[in-house]
Amino acid sequence: MVLLHVPTLVFLLAQLMSLAEAGFAPHHSLSRATERLHKFAIRHSAGLARDLRVVFYGRDVADQIPLGSHKVYCKLPDPFNNGNVNGGNSTSPATATSSSAGHSTPTSASGTHGSTTAAAQPTTSVPVSQFKLQDSWSGSDFYSGWSFWDTADPTHGNVQFVDQQTAQSNQLVGVNSAGNFLMRVETTPQVSGNRKSIRITTDNTYTGGIFILDAVHMPTGCGTWPAFWSNGPNWPAGGEIDIVEGVNDYTNNQATIHTNPGCTIPSNTGQGNLAVTADIVGGLNCAAAETGNAGCGMRSTSSSTYGAGFNSNGGGVYAMAWDDSGIRVFFFPRNSIPDDITAGQPNPSSWGTPMAIWPSSQCNPSEFFYNHSIIFDTTLCGDWAGGVWASTGAPGQDQSCAARTGVATCQEYVQNNGAAFQQAYWEVVSVKVYQKSRQS
Q1: Where is this region: Disordered (predicted)?
Q2: Quick one: CA dihedral 241, 387, 424, 305, positive or negative?
Q3: Considering 21, 35, 186, 245, which one is annotated as catalytic?
Q4: Which of 148, 188, 269, 406 sits a CA distance of 20 to 30 A from 172?
Q5: Which of 295, 348, 355, 344 is nearest to 325 (CA)?
């Protein structure tokens, strides 16, 4: 039997009588009574608080609550608000999941699905950026604001790009337990034609800004040709910017631009001159029509920027800055991502030496680049990966794919070795676009 303080019983009976006299208008009357109980408890002892708990919760609960604390709290659940002690609306966890093509898909709270949103609040040590977040995607957000390309590969790959329904039903896209978006290559052991893969493009277009990719894993291995890039209309008139690109077993990223005639790299660009952390490949002329579509590229000197090296390091962040001064590509390994990027307040002037740069002095961005869509794809073979199938010399390709696989052609290898493409997938944490004001 539980004994209560006599004053407590008198006080509680008085409150119950007041409820009865009020006709017990449930929520308002109980709220007023609860407030009076709360004030009364504060003025009295811890023993009184225990008595109140017994009244509302019963003996078992009271016996479990220690009485050693001198602080008295009497914050009771609101029975008309589903037990929410704060009186506000209850919210679902950010990791709640929904089903998509057989996958457990976290419902992300981030991502703007192509709409403008406020940038993340800066920390006290990071200045506010002049760039504002325009678009952001993570997890299942990539199903909105991006279109699945399902027509022939313009680079002549042995690949069949599929629509969203086919991609989901074949589990070529999905969201993993970390909330990251996956884009895979089909791994069916043998195919008679082309192997299924993914190419997606943003519905929005952009002219200038900061484009940030955070990825954990990218496709790698013989026969693969993945890229993260942007492209304008009427190629190459609107320009192309390849931010991440490589083939086969390469380990060093190559960033490249393709333009109309008139855009070049200054002759003094390079390590120790117009500083970049890359080597020029393919010459100084960026015009697609005058270079056999090759454009002008810069290959990183770091083996953690692409392929197996990138993946084993937990990936990292690529950032492309496009403004009146030119176009720059930066790479930050997973353990070296700048605080301003993490805080959503990007400041390219603080990022140090870029991996690649095309200054406006010889390639005016306003003339050669406009209305860009952002693109992910994984081609198989094609003009580049297939063209260097028997070649060596690029970083990571000490042995040719022909020699390593024992297969004479890239096409034959792709058709008959589905298990070889287990590592041919993108795992993307997020893609974010920042601009001073929205410019498409």
Answers
A1: 84-125
A2: negative
A3: 245
A4: 406
A5: 348
Q: In 253-400, which residue ranges form alpha helices assigned H by DSSP?
A: 307-312, 339-342, 365-368, 382-385
Contacts (Cβ under 8 Å, ≥6 apart) of 310: 217, 218, 251, 253, 304, 316
pTM given for the model: 0.73
Task: Assess contact for 340 and 347: CB atoms under 8 A.
Answer: yes
Q: Distance between CA atoms of 233 and 240, rounded to whole angstroms?
A: 9
245 is catalytic: yes
Q: What 3-state class would DSSP assign to 221?
A: coil
Residue 63 burial by Cβ neighbours in a 10 Å radius (0-12, 13-18, 19+): exposed
**Among the options 21, 186, 240, 427, which is catalytic?**
240
Helix/strand/coil for 33: helix
Q: What are 96-115's pLDDT values in tens digits?
A: 333 333 333 333 333 344 44
Residue appearing with tokens 């407590």? 8
Q: Which residue from 140, 315, 309, 333 is spatially nearest to 217, judged by alpha carbons?
A: 315
Strands (E), 155-249: 159-161, 173-175, 181-184, 195-197, 199-202, 209-217, 224-231, 240-245
Contact between 252 and 264 under an 8 Å Cβ cutoff? The reply is no
pLDDT in tens, 24-67: 444 444 444 444 444 444 444 434 433 433 333 343 333 333 33
Q: Read off the tokens for 275.
A: 């500083």
φ/ψ of residue 55, rounded to 5? -60, -45
Give dist(CA 286, CA 236) in Å, integer: 10
337 Cβ contact list (under 8 Å, min separation 6): 214, 316, 317
The question of whether 21 is a catalytic residue gets the answer no
Q: Report yes or no: 207 and 439 within 8 Å, Cβ to Cβ.
A: yes
Q: State whether the Cα torsion 42-46-47-50 is positive or negative.
A: positive
